[in-house]
Amino acid sequence: MKSRNLAGAAIPATALVALLTLAVTAAPSVATLAVPAAPSVAAPGRPKPAKAPDAPCPTFFRDVAAARGLSFQHERGATPEHQLPETMGSGVAWLDYDGDGWMDLYVVQSGPFPPNGSARARDRLYRNNGDGTGTFTDVTEKAGIADTAYGMGAVAADFDNDGRADLFVTNFEGNILYRNNGDGTFTDVTAKAGVRGSGWATSAAFADFDGDGWLDLFVVRYLDYRVEKNFFCGDVEKGTREYCHPSLYPPIGNLLYRNNRDGTFTDVTESSGIAGALGKGLGVIVSDLDGDGRPDVYVANDTTMNFVFHNLGGMRFEDVSLVSGAGLSIFGRPFGGMGVNAGDLDGDGLPDLVVANFEAEPNSYYRNVGGGIFEDLSTPSGFGAPAFSFSGFGLNLLDVANAGRLDAFVANGHVLEVPHQQGVTYAERPQLFWNDGKGRFVERGCGEPFRKAVVSRGSASADFDNDGDLDIAVSNSGGPLELLENAGGHGGWLGLVLVGRRSNRQGVGARVTLTTDAGRQVRETRAGESYLSSSDPRVHFGLGTATPKSLEIRWPSGVVQTLPAPPAGRYTRIEEPDDGAKPESAPAPAVSPSRPGSP
């Protein structure tokens, strides 16, 4: 059953159920990066071939965090008062902060609650040593990272177009923007930039929403919650407390900041049209959902309708959550949305949406049918049902075996030490969903981490060892950080580092189409995804046994660049043609040959 919306696009039955419920070509500039490749032979400590439990898997994962120097231990600040923020942190962000071509890792710490400025709450920055061993060094002090607020998430992006990755960190009451100085250090420019915000911020994303070549900032907020408003939830007679359900607290709006192109931002929440949408936001993804060349925003809300903000241009948005078909489930009700992502899951070139939900709910898969309209295929796709006994948070789309299709990783973990649902536990194993390339999934964990129960929150993918397959960092509430190394065999691959000229310097928002002799693949570049996290900014294509033929890049500026496919098995730098126009971004600083990979 279908109807039509005002724009003439078909509205699937999913949206109608929800409505009834609530009625209630320029010359290319291409260069091969001097990114050091991973050793062709096994590095010291490389895992042995998979044993029996993982025999059917084309590849498998193992946790190498401790062995690689990532000794981070999350502190959630649990108290007898059971304050709700204690259950929700934290996230991670991959970035190449020193421009050497290797992904570094920023990990958010939460700390004591209420926050008291303790050094125990300081976030950590780990520099990838880039020597082929895949090891990291803690450079927090040297880099000037001094955030001791109660941390939630982080997103990395070049907000000032100087060619260096900056950091935005979300906290409970007061966010932080770190500017990358280019010498291995960061400066807190929050006050000057005007992005401290207020309330309980969770996830965030950078994108060029108004098309001026500079990255703007969208910040998600969770609840109208204050320490002094912590209700008593639990057994009154016994005096035992537990964490309250989010339904007891009022919803709150999100924040939108326009980049003024001078190191400052303007809060345009009211004028943009998003202020009236009150929810309980935890995850955000930015994607051009309707193919009009403008980035739209999708927010995963906890127990309230998910938001779809359609970009009208000129920093104006309309809330199309209901009519889009992606605001509610096929049952016409909201779920407890946590993590979120977008990608072409069925090979039709359109970005689909996926959401990790709370226990006793399937995870959501909304297939894009065109024109910004979605249908809920959570159940028939096989993506939803296996998650019913889990509480999903981190959610990453990645080509696990470099087979030419996007699979899904979900980091799970409950919020209650003693869950009410029978058969549900506090610590939960993660899940790996294998995609057949047509949007049909089979859940099968591959490697010891998928047989280990942990209380996971944020997760982000990256090729940290530059071997061409994607690995995953996972932040665990009250537990040690995990680095899940993709350790088995895989197909061919191709990687890109985009450099904008007319567009923002990082190329965030570009739509990249790779044509091979086996078909087409589409990727979008973004800054901010999953739950409280930010993944490798480079574009990654798995090839399987296919031969790459051509590449098309639709830059955020609207420039469409077509060129022969670059070589497989390496990362290639591609610059946007500027057609003689002077780029608005500042020129990249000079770097020595010992620091390859910097634009």
- In round numbers, the mean pLDDT is 90
Mind telling me the C-alpha Rg? 22 Å
Instruction: Give the low-confidence spans.
Output: 1-11, 13-50, 580-599
* Tally of contiguous helical segments: 5
Portion in helices = under 10%
Strand content: 25-35%
Task: Note down, in words, how this protein is organized.
The chain is built from 5 helices and 40 strands. With 599 residues, the chain is mainly β. The strands form 11 sheets. It has a 4-stranded mixed beta sheet with strand order 3-40-34-37, with no helix packed on it. A 4-stranded antiparallel beta sheet has the order 4-33-32-31, with no helix packed on it. A hairpin with an 8-residue loop joins strand 13 and strand 14.
Secondary-structure blueprint:
Layout: E1 3-4, E2 10-11, H1 13-23, E3 29-32, E4 61-63, E5 92-95, E6 104-107, E7 124-128, E8 136-138, H2 140-143, E9 151-157, E10 166-171, E11 176-180, E12 186-188, H3 190-193, E13 201-207, E14 216-221, E15 234-235, E16 240-241, E17 255-259, E18 265-267, H4 269-272, E19 281-287, E20 296-301, E21 307-313, E22 316-319, H5 321-324, E23 337-343, E24 352-357, E25 364-370, E26 373-376, E27 392-398, E28 407-412, E29 431-435, E30 441-443, E31 456-462, E32 471-476, E33 482-486, E34 492-499, E35 511-516, E36 519-524, E37 539-544, E38 548-554, E39 560-564, E40 571-575
Parallel strand pairs: 34-40
Antiparallel strand pairs: 1-2, 3-40, 4-33, 5-6, 6-7, 7-8, 9-10, 10-11, 11-12, 13-14, 14-17, 15-16, 17-18, 19-20, 20-21, 21-22, 23-24, 24-25, 25-26, 27-28, 28-29, 29-30, 31-32, 32-33, 34-37, 35-36, 35-38, 38-39
